[in-house]
Amino acid sequence: MKILTVVGARPQFIKSSMLSKAVQPVQDITEIIVHTGQHYDEKMSNVFFNQLKLPKPDYYLGVGSSSHGKQTAQMLEELETIIQSVKPDVVLVYGDTNTTLAGSLAAAKLHIPIAHVEAGLRSYNKEMPEEINRQVTDHLSSWLFCPTASAVENLDKEGITEGVYITGDIMYDAVLYFKDIAFQHSSILETLHLSKKDYYLVTIHRAENTDNPERLKSILKTLQQLEKNVIFPLHPRTKKKIEQFNLTNLLSYPIKTVDPFDYFDMLTITSQARMVLTDSGGLQKEAYMLQVPCITLRDETEWTETLQFGWNQLAGTDQNKILNLINTFQVPNQYPQIFGSGKTAEEILTILTKK
């Protein structure tokens, strides 16, 4: 079997590393990797390939940052040529980025079956580009690998019942595999002079927050009111918007801005945070997997299970609501294993290779 894997963003590098590890010892499977270059910054891309020991991409498109339409169109054009040349048995895509959309569209137009890892997620907010990407991808896919039971239910509501599998979450594979390695190799707490459970970790990158000056301003003003250190790795997009909206003056104590972390540092600093505040779907999950309280700076989330069991709370961007949730958050006394057993990659391969 010939698998064409299409990746382009930080979370996809982490997820694909686990499937690549599972593929390597299997003699009759060949994986060809395309890196679209959607995340093109050294801290968001190359460092992950090196650290996770990912195979070097067979193709690098270098699309970089641009409008949704231009970025997706450039990927689509180049992926079409690659797919025609490689002639894969399946095109494998992850998550909900423009890379995901372009990979699935290119494959569908050329009648190549699509496998979608992390299928069935829904926020039902179509102002999010990610929501459009995942809905379109799910409706084009032949294999839909769902991380949770609620993802399967979402697909069923849309009439998608064939080729649907609950496999668990491949990100959980990565957390279990790399967690101890990360703790051994990372010195990020010492570098930033941090004590365990004595700081907040904050990430903001969603367009609904970064492109709206009032929402962005409200978040930053809230962070200024916190009593403990606020560690804020700045996504390139977020940094650009803060400068554009003249909000740089709000990046003052207790906020400490840093460059984006590599995966080992991110795992370490997340695991030892007092609390995570984020608009990232991936970090909501990782916080849950590492049993760290999370407040989500959005009005909805696709990871509803994390809300159900109390490890995650929705706050939006209202200052009073965020501060109230921080001050009243009770760490749950239950921790259900909602993301599977950590063997998702193996299960996906087994399903894909069934005759």
UniProtKB/TrEMBL annotation:
Domain of life the protein comes from: Bacteria
One Pfam family linked to the record: Epimerase_2
Domain UDP-N-acetylglucosamine 2-epimerase residue range list: 22-352
GO MF entry, a single one: isomerase activity
Keyword Iron-sulfur: no
Keyword Isomerase: yes
Keywords: Isomerase
Similarity annotation: Belongs to the UDP-N-acetylglucosamine 2-epimerase family.
Protein name stated in the entry: UDP-GlcNAc3NAcA epimerase
Originating species: Salinibacillus kushneri
